[in-house]
Amino acid sequence: MAAALVRHGVAALATLVLAPVAGAALLAKPAWRAGFGERLGLRGPHVAGAVWVHGASVGEILAATRLLDALRQHGRAVLASTNTATGRAVLARTRPEVPLCYAPLDHPWCVEAALARVAPAALVLVETELWPCWIAAATRRHVPVAVVSGRISERSLPRYQKVAPLMRSSFERLRAVGARSEADAERFAALGVAADRIAVTGDLKLEAPSASLELAPDLARVLAGAPFWVAASTRPGEEAAVLDAHAAAQRAGLASAVVLAPRHLERIEEVIRLLAARAVRWRRRSDANPTPLAAGEVLLLDTLGEAPAVIALARFAFVGGTLAPLGGHNVLEPAYAGRAVLFGPHVEAVREAAAMLLACGGGRALADASALASAVGAWLRDPAQADACGAAARRELDRHRGATERSRALVERVLAGAGARP
Question: Which residues, 6+ apart, have CB-to-CB distance to 143 below 8 Å?
């Protein structure tokens, strides 16, 4: 009783302190208002007894779909959540049959309301979504919490250790951790997870998606024209580098098109202004124009969820967030389809995946924007070399098959009560 009073007192104080900040944020960022009732834990699907799987954003939720598919195939009810509008939109499009919602804010009242509404059988967190209030509330409700594709990087370990007094109870409450690697497993143990609750299950992101990649018929007709390459998940400043590389290829007489896929669709108008200022032929994917792409043309992919299928037909792909100092996006997405990968020097968020691609010969690191133009030209001149790199990337990923099944088995053990403390 005393603990509950203290907990609610702290929650009330936090609400008073943070309410003005939250109000200002909602005014400044209208997009954050989407699903606000879900974020407060007050709205959303009611799926009693479901396995609740949570991934932060697009990359994590796409990895989570493999586990969701496997659980559903074995008769488990599931619920998915994410933190971002893009993650929610991608999941709604690719798995419309899966109930989904925004994750609750990590505040005692919000997570309690969400857990009371859903009444899940287990909570499964993907990678590093280690929210203390959510984990604590689930434990109080006897909802076991597991982590899959668990990662604690060498760089982030000291940061966790600095806040060890605050986070240690969260690590100790985890019923099971499916770590990506032996190194990750050792770091989870160092942070307080009991060794008998940790298993190396692998990285869900390293397993190719189980669903087949299908193109809409009109887009298939568009892509049946000139050979093309893809610039995926581009961020501010990178679109200009892509267009420079494209222009250099045209000047060199290399007949090709490029598909430009910005990371955030809210930037489409900004990218359109950039295209309009250039002497380049371009069109939007959403335009009703099924004419096949011509050499020299740019297709602006302004739709959600179609990039993976487009990449599968490309000569090769550049992955953004890597020339700009933003840490990088999913450099493995092209490799899933057996396509060679180009990326810039800023791969802090995907360091291990980038290193794997470099080691197997499936990718090429670029020092700067001018190196992008050089690499694009080289692979357009010698498509057989790009194909060989893509094949090497796919062979390496094939070595990591089985992460989904191992993760599912770990969740099943948690549901069965294996490893539970008395």
Answer: 115, 120, 121, 122, 123
